[in-house]
Structures are given as structure tokens and as C-alpha cells.
Amino acid sequence: MSINIRKEDPEDIKSIHEVTVAAFVEAPHTAHTEQFIVKALRESGVLTISLVAEDEGIIVGHLALSPVTISDDTDNWYGLGPISVLPEKQGQGVGSKLMRAAIQELKNIDAKGCVLVGDPGFYHRFGFMSVNSLVFPGVPPEYFQVLVLSGSLPKGSVTFHEAFSAKN
User: Rounded distance, CA 62 to CA 53, Å?
Assistant: First the structure.
């Protein structure tokens, strides 16, 4: 398997939708709205970074990054998600390649940091950690994780874009 990571092109949108649906169909702890979130982020003009993973020209993974709001008015922070990999390609390094590329893209745009909600066992290897000073209300602290890229760690509550409430 030879995975190529690149920015999305307009012709990728249908494949991204299909990969996202497939990636979460059997996933626990989801409302199965991830494909609607990606669509709403794109339509709202806040899908800052959208990366696809290709295997022999077929899209097998996708990762989205969009701005978040922090209650202490710290700017230039981003939320990661959703990240999607076709079930048959999971556990083969596709998600890790997407993560490494996403972190590099964040550095390229001089982002100060990134937050996400996800499995600590996966995201800790990329430098994400749970902290007490930055929270996402309603989510257990161990699943809300932070990666500081520059500057200091903000303090307060994080709000993801309203697109994360999309239902269709």
C-alpha cells in the first residue's frame, strides 16, 4: 500500500462523503453525523485544511481542520475532526499519515495549536495531551486533547464551529 496525502480537490467531495460514512458506520460513541459536519464546514467556508489519503488513486481517508473559539480570546487555534479512514484500511498507518500531514499543515499556517475529541491511545503519539486549563464542556477530560504548536497554552473553554451540530 502506497499512501499519498494531499489537499482535497473539488472532485473529491463525493468520495470524502463516502469514506466518512463508511469510517463511522460501526463506530461507537458517534451520532453518525460526521459526513454532515464536513459538508457544513465546507459550506460555511471554515474548512481550513482538508486532506485526503489516496491509495493508488482511490481516496481511503480524510481529515478536516477548522477554527475553534477559546473563551480567553486566544486566536489561531484549530479543531481537528473528523478524521476518517475506510474500515478495511484502518490499522495500516493511514490515520497516522493524515495526522502527521495535518500537524505540518498547521505549522505551515502558523497555527498556535490544535484541539480534538478522541482516543488518547491514538492521539498521544502525536503530542496531544489532556490538560486541566483548557476544556470542552460535556466531554470527559481524558478525551479532549490539546497540542500546543507555538506560544503558551490558553485557559478556558473551547467551542467548535456550529457546523459540528449539523444533522444533514
Answer: 6
Point out which residues pair with 78 in neighbouring strands.
67, 114
Domains of the chain are 3-165 (3.40.630.30)
| Alpha helices (runs of H) in the chain, residue ranges in sequence order | 13-24, 34-44, 94-108, 120-123
CB 82 within 8 A of CB 117: no
Q: How many CA atoms lie within 13 A of 87 on its CB side?
A: 8
Contacts for 139 with CB less than 8 Å, ≥ 6 apart: 117
Question: Taking CA 145 as the corner, what is the angle to CA 80 and CA 141, rounded to the nearest 5 degrees?
Answer: 130
Cα–Cα distance between 104 and 83 in angstroms, integer? 16
Residue 1 pLDDT exceeds 70: no
C-beta separation of 64 from 57 below 8 A: no
Name the 3-class secondary structure at 76.
coil
pLDDT digits (tens, 9 = 90+) for 24-69: 998 877 788 999 999 999 999 999 999 999 999 999 999 999 999 9
